[in-house]
What we know:
Helix content is about 10%, strand content about 50%. It is mainly β.
Amino acid sequence: MAVATGLLSQSGLTAGTLLALLELRWTFRAPIRPGDTVSARARVADRHTTSRPDHGVVRFAIELRNQRDDLVQEGELTELIKRPAPAPQS
């Protein structure tokens, strides 16, 4: 899980906007062995606004795969994200 969250963080996807980790659901499918190379695949599974216009909630579906493309871990991260300010109306 630490590798997956680290890879997601390094992707820059939520850089400067991540406010809090709200929920983590994780399944371990296969072992990760010393010397393995892993990669994370993430997609936005859901998103919605909150009662605050400057905050939103995003649920990411994440797969962690090894160098043979075997699924080794998968799960969902739900995060509180800072939303951009709305564009001024002209």
